[in-house]
Please model this.
Amino acid sequence: MNTSLILLIAVCESVGVGLVGAVVLRLLRRSPVGNSLIAVIVITVCGTNASTITVVLVTQSAEVPVVVTLLVNFVAGAVSLGIGLLLGGSVLKGSRRLADATRTFGVAERFRLPDDPPSAEFAELARELRITSDKLEVSRRRERAVEQSRRQLVAWISHDLRSPLARLRAVAESIEDGVVGDLDDYLGRIRADTEHLTAMVDDLFQLSQIQTGTLRLNLREVALDDLVSDEAAGLDVLAVGRGIRVRARTVEPVTVRVDDRSMTRVFNNLLSNAIRYSPERTTVVVDVRAVNGWAVVSVSDECGGIPPQDLGSVFDMGWRGRKVKTGAGGGFGLTIVHGLVRAHGGHVSVRNVPGGCCFDVRLPLVR
Model:
């Protein structure tokens, strides 16, 4: 048979195997790159052997001219080389896309997943970078929120400090000028402003202990129902003065291992807030019960509820709500509550209830 015809048949067969190989590589794009490398090896062997076997069958002889054998092997090698270059070009193109997306991630602070990655490894790496990008975005939003909260806190503290300091200055100047009519009244004003400033400093100090992890707790077993009842009774004067009733609805005997001074402050803050922000002639309800291994203390009021968009910010430093009044404090109370409860291995949450809101404090029960 004519050598040119034999060579043409071998070329056509090698090209056919190469086309099949290209399709196989395309189908393996979502598979590990090792599978594609194995496919290239198999395609190379199949292309060479298929061409040689075809030539033998066509010539009907096992002895194929050397020239034909060399040409057949050259064509099969060229096809294999083309398949390898196709795979290498695909991997190289995918790596460049991934590198470009990574550089963009550093500039735009957002990773964009490249289209059609060349292998499963590249696809997995791209997904991990996307997940990392999402986590960083959440962290940046949280950092911006904390920074905004800190700025608001500084502004509020400056305002709250300025008012009592201005009053103290005015009283001191009046005493110096000798225009004071009732000295006891002026001394009472000085004492009140001093106590207000002292409370703010105490809040800042305890908040710094919570945030820096230097808070020291003196843990002991405490009857939580008695602690809450005593605190509610201690605030009865404040409640009566505002025309508000504090009522214990469900009080079960529960024992927890806590620092009683810290827990007293937690419930003082929650009850004081409920009394302060509730309208006159309303009721603040306190529940103490055991639920699934937790001691749960709930403080409900009739403040009208918290806007849904603010529920996630209630425990942020400096948050004081939209009904805040001048002199109501620096906005540390709920942040301190959150930190103290977490320091005891518990958690605190807030939810809206009909007519108001409810704070739930959960602490581990003593086994």
Observations:
- The radius of gyration is 39 Å.
- The beta strands are 220-223, 245-251, 255-258, 283-291, 294-300, 347-353, 356-364.
- The chain has a mean pLDDT of 79.
- The longest strand covers residues 283-291.
